[in-house]
Write a structure and sequence with these properties.
heterodimer; A: mainly alpha; three-stranded antiparallel beta sheet; 5% strand; B: mainly beta; six-stranded mixed beta sheet; 4 helices; 42% strand
């Protein structure tokens, strides 16, 4: 009996122990589970985003958020001088009798037979003849007077009126609050014209490079083309491949020739910002037939700006 | 994104070396945009004298036609030319050619010699750079003038695209005449542009699947003469033919190995067919497949290491690739429909095939591992692709159905430039030769 009572007591203790351990485990694992489970998502406030095109981005100029807001935006062009006080030759210019003659001349087309005779007469040639005739009386009057040595005469010819127009640039333009960067003083950002030039050359090169020649990256061509621009974006000199070893491989030669043809064919690059001419007037451009950039570790990559 | 030269030294060692460090590029340009056919001016070749007749014009026409059909060049209409070329040796007025947007200029001269031969000279000019790219001359019997046109086309193509041309080539095909019920099939051969058609067999026997030797002027084909269809070897210069092997049963779908020393084909045994290869010198025959299925249409990889073929061992016709010694065949086609007539590209990078799906036949290409499947043309019935030797263009035959018969077409790898090849009658089963002048 004693043995049985002891067994019974132990069973009760055992049951209590199992129950305690079991509950502790469940509680612990639940706590653990909650501690690892991700926090509930907090809805975020919507953020207004302005979509800025590449062109807009290129023309971001200096601006300040804290500047006083002008009620009406300043016009870029202001009248400063007093037009009444100056001798204004404008009225003479305004009268345009030539336009009237032009408009009268245009309604004539109803007569189709008259046209070919006009074409035969070649108005451009006639105009040229007239102009050739005209110069005869002109040189008699002004040309002998305007000699470079006569500086006084030249000064007399200068317009001494007050300036009537003033184009405003720099900080004045951005005195109103704008989203321009505090330090954005370039008229066009550096990275932007580089991207535009790169994109243009990529398209041009692709148009000139026969398809399927450089499909695998084990046979590729990589070289630098020296491009020198004029201020208007046209080529100052013929582009040159500056490569130590251009090799005789026809595919390599093909890639370089296609690049040179592309650079010539797509000129002028009128989108290049004149204000940054010094930055792009001499532009060595790397050309690489591989579509994927695998050369980040090369010496050129270190020069990223 | 800035960077030039190579990252992997292994790749560099293959062909290219890094550029000079003298100039640090401020941008890196990679090929973008879409290729536009190169505008090329091809003024009529100059005659040495009036005795040349139409030959200069005809040679010019052949070159213009070849380059235009390749879709990589856009010959400019001669009416737009500003400068009239009168002196073959004078430097052209490049600004005149730039004005009409020509990027290349081909000028030529044809003279008949006192011995009856002709001398053809040409110069290829880079208009934008103002320099001569090639200058070459040929002396040949005057009846060879068409080939001269093709050879010049190939040289221009290779110089401006960096790849071998395919114009100085021939195509052997099955010429079909007569009604649909009583069709006469003869082996014929022609230039790749459809000219100079010549018949090789009489038409008394039914001929199928002619294939060019990659190294010799021989073709192999299957013929139904008396008894079982057999694979034959025919020398197109001497017109001598011989049976390939002496097998019990039908042999079919033959094709040469890349070295031209062996012929691989199918041999029917009962309800099955298996692939065998026979050495043409020793006549030793090796069995390459041993499946209870129809294995046929074998084609070697250009390096001779692997073979692609079609088999219905999985139920439907599919394309498999195995080693050149047989065994270890791996299925590579997994799209919908049935795949047949695989042909390995001479470049080695793709396999052309015929695909049958929902009652239509398409010609397509896929990579040797089965990836990158592309359909180039599709229709009621397209079949039997064959590669141009440079692997850029496929020829195949198309049957419109009804009472009409099949015709030959070419399509480039982009699938956009599909052209019909003129043949005297109906034509099927084309096989493109290697370059004759290589």
């Amino acid at each position: 009996m004693r043995f049985g009572a002891t067994i019974g007591f132990l069973r009760k203790r055992l049951g209590a122990t199992i129950s305690t351990v079991g509950h502790a485990l469940i509680l612990g694992s639940t706590l653990l589970w909650f501690s690892f489970s991700p926090p509930p998502a907090i809805p975020e406030d919507a953020v207004m985003v302005d979509v800025v095109s590449l062109n807009d981005f290129s023309h971001i100029t200096a601006g300040s958020r804290t500047a006083p807001k002008a009620e009406t935006p300043k016009p870029i062009v202001d009248k400063i001088g007093d037009p009444q006080n100056t001798k204004d030759p404008a009225p003479k210019v305004v009268d345009k009798p030539e336009i009237k003659t032009d408009t009268r001349a245009t309604p004539t087309p109803p007569e189709p037979k008259a046209k070919p005779t006009e074409q035969k007469s070649d108005p451009i040639a006639e105009a040229l003849k007239k102009e050739q005739k005209k110069p005869d009386p002109k040189p008699k009057k002004p040309q002998p007077k305007l000699e470079f040595s006569q500086i006084e005469n030249k000064l007399a010819l200068l317009d001494k009126r007050d300036p009537q127009r003033q184009s405003i640039a720099g900080a004045t333009l951005n005195s109103t609050a704008s989203l321009g960067a505090e330090t954005g003083r370039d008229s066009v950002l550096d990275a932007s014209w580089k991207a535009m030039l790169t994109n243009r050359l990529m398209d041009c090169w692709g148009e000139h490079l026969p398809p399927g020649v450089f499909n695998d990256d084990t046979h590729f061509a990589s070289f630098v083309v020296d491009i020198h621009f004029k201020r208007d974006g046209s080529l100052a000199t013929d582009p040159v491949v500056t490569s130590v070893d251009s090799g005789s491989d026809p595919k390599y030669r093909l890639a370089t020739e296609a690049a040179l043809r592309a650079v010539r064919a797509c000129a002028p690059y009128a989108f290049l910002p004149v204000a940054r001419y010094e930055a792009w007037k001499d532009a060595p451009a790397g050309f690489d037939t591989r579509l994927i950039d695998t050369s980040r570790s090369t010496k050129y990559a270190k020069r990223r700006d | 994104m800035l960077g030039v030269a190579a990252a992997s030294a292994g790749a560099l060692a293959v062909a290219w070396r890094p550029v000079s460090a003298a100039q640090q590029p401020i941008i890196t340009v990679r090929p973008g945009g879409e290729f536009k056919p190169m505008p090329i001016a091809i003024p009529e070749f100059l005659p040495g004298s009036a005795a040349e007749g139409d030959m200069p014009r005809n040679i010019t026409q052949i070159i213009t036609n070849n380059l235009s059909r390749s879709a990589l060049f856009a010959p400019i209409d001669q009416a737009a030319y500003i400068e009239k070329i009168t002196d073959f040796n004078a430097t052209p007025r490049f600004p005149d050619w730039r004005t009409i947007n020509a990027q290349a200029l081909l000028v030529g001269h044809v003279t008949r010699q006192s011995d009856g031969r002709i001398r053809v000279m040409f110069r290829l000019w880079d208009v934008s750079g103002g320099s001569q790219l090639i200058g070459q001359q040929f002396m040949t019997p005057s009846d060879n003038w068409r080939r001269i046109g093709h050879i010049i086309s190939d040289m221009v193509y290779e110089r401006l695209t960096g790849e071998k041309g395919y114009f100085d080539t021939r195509v052997v095909f099955v010429d079909e005449t007569g009604t649909k019920e009583q069709r006469i099939k003869r082996l014929a051969i022609m230039d790749q542009d459809g000219a100079n058609v010549r018949y090789l067999t009489s038409g008394r026997e039914l001929v199928l699947t002619p294939r060019f030797s990659p190294t010799t002027q021989e073709i192999t084909y299957m013929s139904f003469g008396q008894g079982d269809p057999r694979v034959y070897l025919l020398n197109i210069e001497t017109n001598q033919r011989e049976i390939v092997g002496n097998f019990p049963g039908m042999t079919f779908s033959p094709r040469f190995s890349p070295d031209g020393q062996r012929v691989i084909m199918s041999l029917q045994q009962g309800g099955n067919s298996n692939i065998f290869v026979m050495d043409l010198r020793s006549k030793a025959t090796t069995r390459l497949t041993d499946a209870a299925a129809i294995d046929t249409a074998p084609s070697y990889a250009p390096d001779g290491s692997r073979i692609c073929f079609e088999s219905d061992r999985g139920g439907k016709q599919q394309i498999y690739v195995m080693g050149a010694t047989g065994g270890g065949a791996q299925r590579i086609s997994f799209g919908d429909g049935a795949y047949s007539t695989p042909v390995w590209s001479p470049r080695g990078d793709t396999i052309a095939f015929t695909k049958q799906f929902q009652g239509r036949f398409a010609i397509g290409v896929m990579n040797p591992d089965g990836s990158g499947e592309r359909i180039l043309t599709e229709g009621f019935h397209n079949e039997g692709p064959t590669w141009a030797p440079n692997g850029r263009v496929l020829m195949f035959f198309r049957d419109p159905g009804g009472n009409a018969g099949p015709s030959l077409y070419t399509v480039d790898l982009s699938g956009r430039n599909e052209l019909r090849v003129q043949t005297p009658g109906y034509a099927s089963d084309p096989a493109w030769s290697p370059l004759l002048s290589s």
